[in-house]
Amino acid sequence: MVSYAPLHLRVTTPQIELVGATDHLLEKLEPIVRTGKASAEPAPYDDPMSLYEEDPEIRVVKWLQSVWRGRGIVTADFWRLNLIVMLNNKPVGMQDVIGDHFNTYGTVGTFSWLSSDVRQRGIGSEIRQAALHLAFDGLDAREATSEAFIDNLGSNGVSRRLGYKENGVTWASRHGEPALMQRWRLTREDWLPHRRSDIEMYGVASTRKVLRK
């Protein structure tokens, strides 16, 4: 494996692991994207979104390109940690942690998707908790934000259970049609009562050095 710190990052819980999105793991995750198992109904993603592409070949190409762009565009003002969700040593989705003007505001956003095979088993909540642990304990974030369409009951339910506060609504489009999104905000103070003692992190110090360059 190449010596690029974010690719060696790992966050573990008793149920899952979040690991850096190496090309080797992306190749193993590719069949889920190709077969459309990364999407859901009602449509959960705002435009533009590679996972909405109808042609499986184009879908995979655009998805990979988006991950590679996130890997390459890392500055002190913006970075995106692409992490692959491992369940029973198999890749089943992705959980991203995004810092936009992080050095100024200390705010991270999160984005995730799971294969349709493993949904409704509490994995969505588990990977969000792992991402928040990385953000607050590992990267010293001040707050975390999330957004989901109003009818995305799963994502909104996770935010509510983990202590996020509603933070207004906004319009976004999906498949070219307008739809309302619920915004959520979680401060470090509101996260602390939910902090878990069974989450471990590896490779954080070296990753922080990359994100601050």
TrEMBL record:
GO MF annotation: an example: acyltransferase activity, transferring groups other than amino-acyl groups
Signal sequence, renumbered to the chain: none
InterPro entries recorded: Acyl_CoA_acyltransferase, GNAT_dom
Pfam families per the UniProt record, alphabetical: Acetyltransf_3
Record-annotated N-acetyltransferase domain positions: 31-189
Source taxon at top rank: Bacteria
Protein name: RimJ/RimL family protein N-acetyltransferase
Organism encoding this protein: Oceanobacillus polygoni
Lineage, broadest ranks: Bacteria, Bacillati, Bacillota, Bacilli, Bacillales
